[in-house]
Each structure stands twice: as C-alpha cells, then as structure tokens.
Amino acid sequence: MGNLSIILLSVAVFMAMVLYLTINQDNREKWVGIAFSIASLGGLLVYGYAYSKSPDMGAVEVLRTVIDTGRMFAGMNNVAVFTEAVGEGSPWHIMFWGAHFLAYYSMASVFILVLGKSAIKKFRSWLLRINDVELIYGINESSLEYGRTVSEGKRVSVVFVDTDAMKWEADVRQIGGLIYTDPSALNPDIHLIKRLGIKKGKSKLHLTALSDNADQNFDYAKKLLRSLEKGNINPEQTGITIIGREELEGMRLLAGPGKYGYGQVKVFDKTELIARLLMQKFPLCDVVEFDEQGNARNGVEILLVGFGRLGQEVLKKLVANGQFEGSSFKVRVYDPKFEKIDGYFRYRYNAMLENYDIKFFAEDGRSRHLTNYVLDNAKTINYVITAVGDDELGREIATDILDLFHEKKRVVPVYQCTSDSVWQYRYGEERKIWSLNDANILYGGKMDDRAKEINHFYHGEEGDLERQWAECDYFSRMSCRASADFLTALFKRLRITGDDKISEEFLENLARTEHHRWNAFHFSMGFATMDEETLKKRAELFKTDTSLRISKDLSARRHACLIPWDDLDALSEYENKVTGKNIDYKQMDRDNITVMLKLLANT
Questions:
Q1: Are residues 310 and 237 in the same domain?
Q2: Same-domain check for residues 264 and 280
Q3: Which pLDDT belongs to residue 536?
Q4: Smallest Cα–Cα separation from 450: which of 475, 470, 469?
Q5: CA–CA distance from 319 to each of 349, 568, 602 (Å)?
Q6: Residue 415 forms beta bridges with which residues?
Q7: Are residues 257 and 334 in the same domain?
Q8: What does the pLDDT read at residue 154?
Q9: What is the reported pTM?
C-alpha cells in the first residue's frame, strides 16, 4: 500500500502543477477549496467508520478519527486500521484512497500556490534581463487589457507601477506581469533602470502611461526620462505611449539634436482617439449613396446625444468627415446642459458652427423633444451617436432610439462612445465593442499607418518613415490623419483600389470632395476664412518679407482658401500676381487625390 501512496501523491502534485499553470487565480482557489472539503468529509467518513468498529468506542476513537483525517493532508495514511475494519481487497478501499488523493491534491495545490508565487515572480524578474520591457504606469481595467494584449506573442516583459496594486495582483499575475509599488518605481530613479535590466545598447524600454490623471502621466514620463539619461541609455532603446490632452506636450519628450529624449513618442488625447476610432470603424461615407462618377445622391443627417468633452470631439470629427460633393450635411445635438459647457468650444470653433447646419437643443436624450424629432425625421436620419458620459444611460438612450426607428421600419445603427471604446447597437443583434485599449492601436499605432505614408510621401519618400512621423509637428500630424482616415474610407466605399483608371469627371468630383474635406478639417481645428482686408494687408507685408505665406496665418488660425471650390481660381490668380509664384489651389486638391491613389496602388 506504501507504493500506492507514493503514486497517488505524485499524481496529485502533477495535477496541482497543471492547475496552477492553466487555471486562473480565482478558479484555482475554488477547485482547491472543493478538493479540501471533499477530502475532509471523506476522511472523517472512512476513519470514523474504521474506529467505530473498535470495541473500546469512546472519546479516544473520535480524536483518532480527527487526527488521522488531518494526517491525510500531510501525505500520511493509516490504511491498516481501515483494512482491519473492511477487510483486505474490499471495494471500499476505492473511497479510502480517493479521499487521500484529494487530500494530497489540495495539500500540493496550496503548497504550489504559496511557493509558486515567489518562484514565478523571481523567474519573471530574471526575464527582464533578456526581454524588452513594457513599463505600464497606472493600473486600471484599461491598462490591464492593454498589458494583456501586449504580452501575447511578443518577447516583452510587462511591469505595472501603481500605489493601489493589491486588488489587481491576481489579474497582473494571470497575464504574466509584475507589479512594482516601491518608492524607486513610483518615483523612477537609476535603481529602477537597473532592476528592469536596461543597459546601454541592450534591450528596449517602452513606457505606456495610462493613469487616469494626465498630469501624473507626464510627470512620471519626465522623471523616468531623467533616470534614463543618468543611466546613459541610448534614446533609440526607448519609446513612450502616453494619454494626454495635447500632442504638443509630447514633442518635449522626443529626442532631438543636442536634446535627450525618448526615441519614439506617441501622445494621444483619449477623446480625440475615441472619435477617430468611431470614424474609422463606421465612416460617414458608408451612409451615402454615390453615382458612377463619385457624386453623392443623398445627404448626411446626424443625431448626436451628449455634448461634454467627448461629444465635442465627436462633433468636430463628424464635420471633418461628413462632406461630399453633391451631399448636404446636418447635425442635431441634444444635451440639457450644453449652454453651460460650450463656452470655449463655441468661441474656438465659431466659424465651424456658422458654416455648417448644426443646431443644439437643451433637451435630455430621453426627452419628448428628442423622441418626436426621431419619429418625425426617421426617414432621413442616417447616423446616430450617444456620448453622454454614463455607460448605462448611454445604453438606455441608444436602445430607445433603436426602438423608435424599428417602429418606422428603418434599420439605423446607434453608436455609443464611452471613455475607452465604441459600441455598436443594431436592432435584434448583440452589441459589438471596439476598444481603444487594443494593443494594435496604442502599441503598434495601426490607426496612423496610412497617415505616416502620406507624411512620408510629402517628404519626397526619402528618409525613415517612423522618424519623419516622430518629428512631424502637431498640426501636420492631424492634417495627415484627417486626410488618411477620410480618403481611405471613401475609396473603399467607391471601390477604388489604386490601380483603377478613373475618368476626368470622377477625378474632378473627388477633388471637389477633397476641398470640402480640407475646409471642414480646418474649420474643425478652429480656423476661419481670412477676410479680403487681411489678405491685402499680408500682400503688402510680402513686399518686405518674401517668406510670408499671404493666404495662411497659422498663429491667428486664418486661411484664405476656406472658400467654395469655384472661388479658388480667383484666389490662385491673385496670390500669383502678388508673389510671382505659380500656385493652383484646385490642382492641389487634385494632387491629394492622386497621392492617395498612388499609395493604394503600392499597398
């Protein structure tokens, strides 16, 4: 029987190891608890029965039952007393050894759970010496999802830094990560760099700052940068992805001539990125019908519920992505508090609000006013978004609107923008979610692939694409992104592959659409049309400063080209007369279309 004990104990240890390596923390503890309970009950039954056969039945036998049951969890047994009670070869031995196996199993599982945490932590710490390191500042649901996708299939060690880490310990351990909560990690110093195994010319360190506090993100990034410089780490070994309000702030973190910084910098305004994700996944051109020459046959009519920070960013993206030759554009915004929160927005983007059919209603998304508006305009509304800042409320409003459309026998999806994802609702279907925390978006930067190509093309296609993008100024990046997002979606909608030879009429309609888009982008960036008097004053200044761009004043956000397509020839003629140049603004729009066709052809 001793040999059987060894076999059962070995199997139990093996099964416990399998449990530890394949089952998550919560389920591991549940299964260990079940095994312990069954083993305890089984032990009390088999040993209680054995000692009940004793002629001296009393308190001693009860104690012996309890003691022998406890000894089961130390890997020992008293098979002799049980055999004496049931006989040699009795089938009840199956129950006896089954109880002991579960006792061995639960004992081995607890032992591995306790020692395994320490051993695996040491092993993961050792891996820092040979792996690249993804340092994630801030632990929350978003950063955990991001860390999970980063760690899959990559030679990357994931390290989280936060003060409030205990409640996330099991989740971080499950994805194979480490948690640092000590002062050296929270205020990154040279000791942290050494602990991460980062040395000059060896391994790479990428910081992703996903704390909910943008100021803390930048403070942490700057402190880590100083420590990297002190450690003499090459900028090429480093990179950063950071959530913040302004991409301009990120330029201060980028390495440059005579300036130490991160080798690659990606800074995202979260609300801007959510709005971009909405436009990429569900472009407005998809609700427009086009004829064979790229001319729109119907308009874009949008209902936007919610006008907080996210709703305001969504509106700008809707304007920038909703202009097509032959189409109309209309937005109705519902927010009961819009007049109390739109002060800066109305000041900065007043020209946009004046140039497009955008109206606001101080009404709740559940109001009679909105219900009646949807019912009265159900035949023409073709794009609906909720961005109310409360997920449950947004869901309620979205599903109510779906019901209204269903009554009118129309299928119009409703899109809900949350703090870190875009949700799609379609009547009778399950909700679909596209998360911002997809590592392909933040880590790989897939959303900017086409924008980088456009920027590279305008640099003459010489030099490093990634480096050119890293050194690109904020406004130019936004311009490339706007063009890439819009034209990529439009060409897909029109089934243009890049190899197609399109007619002159088709090209001209695309160029007109491009001018509509270019205007809308600039209005959505706070630009206004430069008036004739200002243009003439700048023409006078050109006589003494020939480097002056008379039609564009970036600091004042004024541009003379923010005019209808048909007025561009007159502007080109006037500017050429003043500057002696050969500018053709219509041709520039045509050239933008040609550039995208070339990029598609080379994809």
A1: no
A2: no
A3: 95
A4: 469
A5: 11, 21, 30
A6: 385, 424
A7: no
A8: 66
A9: 0.73
Rounded Cα distance between 32 and 19, Å, is 9
Please state, in angstroms and rounded to a whole number, the distance separating the CA atoms of residues 47 and 67. 10
* Whole-number Å distance between alpha carbons of 112 and 16: 7
List the structure tokens of 92. 């009840």
3-class secondary structure, 362: coil
Q: Cα(39)–Cα(46) distance, rounded to whole angstroms?
A: 10
* Domain encompassing residue 414: 274-437
Query: What is the C-alpha separation between 300 and 286, in angstroms, rounded?
Result: 10
Q: How far apart are CA 31 and CA 188, in angstroms?
A: 40
Using CA atoms of 99, 100, 103, 107 in order, give the dihedral in degrees to the nearest 10: -170
Tokens found for residue 241: 């992805």
* Domain total of the chain: 4
Q: Tokens 């599982």, residue?
A: 109
- Alpha-carbon span 421 to 434, nearest angstrom: 6
β-pair type (264-268, 432-435): unpaired
Angle between helix axes 2-22 and 93-127 (nearest 10 degrees) is 40
Indicate whether 510 and 528 sit together in one domain: yes
For helices 585-601 and 504-524, the axis angle rounded to 10 degrees is 100
Q: What is the number of other CB atoms lying within 10 angstroms of the CB of residue 256?
A: 12
Give the N- to C-terminal CA distance of the chain in Å, as an integer: 70
**Tens-place pLDDT, residues 241-276:** 887 765 566 778 888 788 899 988 878 788 988 999
Q: In whole angstroms, give the CA distance from residue 533 to residue 544.
A: 18
**Same structural domain for residues 284 and 414?**
yes
Q: Last residue of a domain, which of 91, 117, 143?
A: 117
Q: Do 157 and 199 belong to one domain? A: yes
In whole angstroms, give the CA distance from residue 285 to residue 282.
9
E-only strand ranges, 413-519: 414-417, 421-425, 432-435
| pLDDT tens column, 499-553 | 678 899 999 999 999 999 999 999 999 999 999 999 999 999 999 999 999 999 9
Please enumerate in sequence order all residues whose Cβ is within 8 A of that of 462, keeping only pairs 6 or more positions apart, or say none: none
